[in-house]
Backbone:
């Protein structure tokens, strides 16, 4: 074979640095597009992730174990076309069969609880707890949120705070319940509503008797940030419920109860909220924090009913003392 016939292997072409940079750039661009897409999607559906309403055509108190006249239907037209339904639960052995008898019951000067539930279910699922709360010789009001049970509309922080204030005004003005008799009880998400209303009323000089928070968060943004640290939740979230910013101006007595094993709203959230609260109310009642060691998020009342009711009775004591007839 002649020298001219000798062949050599063709050298493989090496990718230029610019080619690798282009590939890497395309990969990063795809990742960025995917990330932005997730952000936009979650921003659009965020309220579906926060609120989990259970609808019902109608809720009959008898179907939930109430005797006749003990659980009265409540209806509030909070806006034209928006009528909210709820219950007024009387103490055991009490009943009212019409509006006049209901007012006579409310004129008895008993403590009153306005119950703000969590983000799931409806008032029927809390019937047993309402019965136990009313056994403290107290009147309990639970009005379901927009979009829950029979109620029309869609959930949002703005709507909830508007409705909470409307119902408060109706109970105070139309039903003639003195603010100093009312405890705002907020469960989980309801704690954000109760705290916001207590803040507003405190600044107006018409604070309720107390604020009782069951498994509360410091803010909805903080909860989302812990669950999704890779997302810009502070920018994304429309409904924020910044309780930790609102509670410092609350002037009524404050009690917080939280399960140590809560996997939905971490125990530390409740601790932070408690630290932000004033040390005592305007009438010098110290704030109270109750830890339930074995409880999670949804079983606080079941696991610690005695402690729960005792804490409420402690909040009722000043109300009952004020209403003792003078000799």
Residues:
């Amino acid at each position: 074979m002649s020298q001219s016939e000798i062949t050599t292997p063709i050298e493989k072409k090496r990718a230029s640095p610019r080619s690798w940079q282009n590939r890497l750039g395309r990969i990063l661009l795809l990742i960025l597009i995917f990330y932005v897409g997730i952000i936009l999607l979650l921003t659009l559906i965020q309220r579906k992730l926060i609120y989990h309403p259970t609808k019902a055509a109608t809720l009959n108190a008898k179907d939930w174990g109430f005797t006749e006249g003990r659980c009265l239907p409540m209806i509030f037209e909070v806006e034209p076309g928006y009528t909210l339904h709820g219950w007024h639960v009387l103490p055991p052995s009490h009943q009212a069969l019409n509006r006049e008898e209901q007012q006579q019951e409310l004129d008895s000067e008993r403590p009153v609880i306005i119950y703000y539930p969590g983000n799931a279910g409806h008032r029927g699922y809390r019937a047993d707890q309402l019965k136990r709360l009313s056994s403290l010789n107290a009147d309990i009001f639970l009005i379901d949120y927009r979009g829950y049970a029979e109620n029309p509309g869609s959930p949002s922080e703005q709507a909830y705070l508007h409705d909470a204030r409307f119902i408060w005004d109706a109970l105070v003005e139309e039903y003639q319940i003195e603010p100093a008799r009312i405890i705002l009880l907020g469960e989980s998400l309801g704690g954000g509503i109760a705290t916001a209303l207590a803040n507003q009323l405190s600044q107006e000089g018409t604070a309720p008797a107390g604020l009782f928070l069951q498994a509360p968060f410091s803010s909805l943004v903080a909860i989302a940030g812990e669950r999704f640290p890779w997302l810009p939740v502070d920018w994304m979230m429309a409904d924020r419920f910044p309780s930790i910013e609102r509670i410092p101006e609350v002037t009524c007595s404050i009690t917080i109860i939280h399960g140590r094993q809560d996997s939905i709203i971490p125990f530390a959230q409740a601790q932070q909220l408690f630290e932000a609260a004033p040390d005592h109310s305007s009438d010098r009642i110290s704030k109270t924090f109750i830890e339930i060691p074995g409880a999670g998020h949804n079983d606080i009342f079941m696991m610690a009913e005695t402690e729960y009711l005792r804490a409420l009775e402690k909040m009722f004591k000043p109300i009952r003392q004020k209403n003792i007839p003078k000799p």
